[in-house]
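Issue: copy button drops trailing tokens. Both records pasted manually instead:
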Amino acid sequence: MSENSSDEIRDQLPSDLDVSAFVGPYQFPDNRRRRIPGYLYLGISACSIALWIFNDQSSGLVNDGILVFGIALAAFALFVLSSSWPMTVNERDALVRASQAVDFAVGHASAQQVWRGIRSRPTWRVFCYSAQEPPTHRGLVLVDAVDGAIIECLVELNPDTAATSA
């Protein structure tokens, strides 16, 4: 069998992750999408509880496990719905807010979306360097993606620059 055989199985990225098809700025998905499975869980939970309520007591297929399942799924659905925060701050807004929070002119910066807390509140983690070449300072700023508040701001001298100048 040759190495370039047409029947060879190969891994490939899904089309939505293919960088060569990049058309414009990436739009981060909104956490409000979590409401869809949350409502589905509530519906399935309601059906399970209704099945338990209206079952024939002599049935061997419907027992108290259906009720326990329905209650547990309802509790999980409420958790999922409570963690479906609407994101009002996008990546660019987070970069602007972070550059205002640090006490230096920002050169290079990058933002990463993370979630914090038990209810998975979306947060932008912004890492930025000062505009000097090489950068003398760096900062890490956490920006709340729901209301845009600065959660945390850490600024320090760039240790890479300090090591080369010593």
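Record 2 (pasted manually too):
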Amino acid sequence: MIAISDHNSAENVEAAIAAADSTSLTIIPGMEITSSEEVHILGLFDSVTAAQGVQKVIYEHLNPGQNNEEFFGSQYVVDKDDYVISENKRLLIGATDLSVSEVVETIHKFSGLAVAAHIDRERFGLLYQLGFLPEGLELDAVELTGNSKLSEVEEKFRCSIDLPQICDSDSHFLDDIGRRTTEFLVEAPTLSEIRLALKGIDGRWARCRGENHA
């Protein structure tokens, strides 16, 4: 399984799913949303329709601006064969005017999983941007992308993070895919099963690869 989670957009999710249709690869529709505090929150969804619903909300709240292709690169929308069908001119690297809690609420409104992205990184991580884990923020998990352990993050910020964790590569380049992964014991490669695994329900579990499961 991999998740397609572009910044503030889900326009290439459908093409990725179509490209993987004849393979054993499962694509989880996703989006990495930037809050008004410039915190990245990862949304994972069980359907393209749900991801597109969130995308509509995000586009309505994305701060105005146009992509600078020379600085940020082109933002192409492609089909399953990687042919360009359009170009997104929005400033997708920018922030929305939605707070962290509003982003999480939006993800949950469309039955998605809300994950605090790369909390072990300085740029756009929840703890680095805010300095603390907001009380009452209903996250489903936190994400680690480097070599850090959750205990090391807790020690650094002198906080307790009583949330499930996932580990992944946060790949921006093909060669980085699979650099860090999460193992799931599930009955099927679906978001509903991932949700159960994160909660440790009915024998299911999730763990960062290479770490022992208790």
